[in-house]
């Protein structure tokens, strides 16, 4: 093929420009405004537009090379078929091992659909047509694939060539294998406050192992502990504190790996017992350091490649995180690597900062580990927030002594293993959506990436839609490896993705890629049938150069012939060599295009700030919104369907748009205003000033929920109440934002009830009703009065009885005390008429000395006590003791007392006690005031009488019986009145609250104005008898 010379091309440039302008102007408006392909000027732009194809035929001409193959436009007919570039999505199955223990139980796993190894392609019409070829990769009930390898996901690897902005669906299967291995690493806070928890874990070690073995026979257990960084201010750094930070504590440390994962469960209990608690200063612990090392040190911990990995984190405190290390002078960030010594100690604890939450999350995802935070009540809210930021993490409440740790781990494991949640690591350039029926084999697909209540052998199918939403600028990013994986399981579907974002003919080395091509006047690169000019050259075939612009070009070729008075290049570009060079926007997603720069993709109408209401509703092309199938309107904000404007309660054939009280606009009802009032509600079914549906629903609510009312008979209730079944709730409260209406009623016996009616999310009519009617308490006044009187009498009698008991006890104690002292005292024997002295006295008439009493026989008294007489002298001293010490008795007159009492002066003492070893005699008497007094007399060494008397008499307290009786009666009356007053106060408060609540419900409810005989309508209608127009 001979290429014309540059001079010849330039001479015909103006003619070609005019012809092309006329041709484009003749294209019907419906194609230019609705065809998104014609504006694409380059091959990669064309194939990144759904349903567009590119023609790279060298002999195609100057028409738009980007076209819709099914559009029927001229471009499609002019391009030879072998030069049409319309890439399809291509899926190739690389690895697809059979699932382990898969089965398809009716109603649980759904029908098993085989996946096959091979490849298929998808055509440009977005159907999923195509075919697989190859061998089956799944069989129901098959054994573990890959020679004993446990397989829970299929397929395992795909190769996908995906065209930009064109979705592709693939199917993936998941099943839970029987006896899937479990690795459980117990990471425990061993600060001093967890000492009792350690002892409890030691005692429960065997129980934990046996419990987990019931869930899976392939179970291994490991153990590690942590405290905090050994620097201030986290721990005491004094020498003695670094050795023994607290009583019975070992030296502090950051993290210590004690036991590698093992099936030797006896060793686990032994290692827990051998671990010693330690102490630190501040509240938070260094648990993040321990988690990071437990996760990344896989060989040291012993994590298996194929196992469900559980990390149980047990503590009663919060945690330090990235940045807290600065308090201790540690500024080096955590590197997220393993730093364990041979002894299992974390060697970088005092040199690297704590890891961040995001670092924990990334490494947990990378290593497929489920963290179970077993924490106490005071910190559970903190760890619930943390679990939201760590993939696969869960939280359980730990008792103060960890006594429920076995139940907690079992519960969390069952929750984790019975749920599958799919995640992916795709970049923002790729959109991935998950759909599944989960265990509902007959249901429809639901947009979800999570299924629960899965048992061993259940088969779950996921439909995965992938779409390249934007092409990365870097060509190397067009090739990505995407991993789709279940959270916490080290298995995945790997997709080797190639984004079809550019054409092969735009790449060097292709037949239709020529640099300095003669097709481009040797001033540009020929790519896919068009020229990309070098700097300084312009035109379709680079036929214009900068030195020709000023003398050979007319601007008329750059003015839209439909608007001869318009601006050059529509004011949005420059006329270069007879063609418009449109401006470039700062935003890469915004473009100005068209022969005269008359089009753009950013000036369409917006809704809620979104262009054409967002990409889900439509796209902007040449200033016009092109809506998707379900939407319409200038900004694609209106739904085409009127299905949302019909009340779901209406019977077939009787349904009216917006209940006959409005019009359907943009898929929503716009309600009308009539003489009766203004209608509202989702289906214009409500009218606040009209009679509402409360009365219509009242009878059915009464008979269905309370079995009362006009339809009390079950047969009548069943026949008339078929539209709804009320849902009982403790309190029937209406959410006005959701259009709920509350109705309240009171029946004859004063009982009140309320119910709410509304339409749910599926447009179904629903009624919530109060579970139990609230009835006023029945007060039996006679019973209350008699009860209060009886209570007052009983209380009075109880108080009198109590007083009598106390006084009787007091009297008996006093009498017993008196009897004891009387037995100890020496009473006057002279008062006894039959008493005979124990001694006989004889007088020697020949003795001329001092008269003396010579005892001849002493039966009972020592010789030292015999003076003038051997009789008891208590009565002799009694009167003198009374008058001298107490100013009482027969000698109480001071003069009489002074003249008769000269032998002794009593010595007052607090308590009188007789010393029998000193021959002291104890005397006790009651005086005329019934007061008791005691004294002791004896002879001193000089044979003189001595007396010690009790300092104060012991007088009984005087009891004023009338006062006591009157006081008891007054107290009983006051207590009775207080009880009556309190009862009256409580009943008044309760009644007022109930009345206020009822008034509030009555104001919120829609009452039937027709039942009020004095009700008058808010409007009045008059008819003009002289008016002859339309009624």
TrEMBL record:
Entries under SMART domains matching the protein: INB, Integrin_b_cyt, Integrin_B_tail
Domain Integrin beta subunit cytoplasmic: 804-850, 984-1030
Keyword terms: Calcium, Cell adhesion, Cell membrane, Disulfide bond, EGF-like domain, Glycoprotein, Integrin, Magnesium, Membrane, Metal-binding, Phosphoprotein, Repeat, Signal, Transmembrane, Transmembrane helix
Gene3D superfamilies: 4.10.1240.30, Cytochrome c1, transmembrane anchor, C-terminal, Laminin, ntegrin, alpha v. Chain A, domain 3, von Willebrand factor, type A domain
Segments forming domain Integrin beta subunit VWA: 42-503
Main location: membrane
Any one GO molecular function term: metal ion binding
Subcellular location(s) per record: Cell membrane
Secretion signal, residue range per the UniProt entry: 1-25
Similarity-based family: Belongs to the integrin beta chain family.
Protein name: Integrin beta
Annotated organism of origin: Exocentrus adspersus
Lineage of producing organism: Eukaryota, Metazoa, Ecdysozoa, Arthropoda, Hexapoda
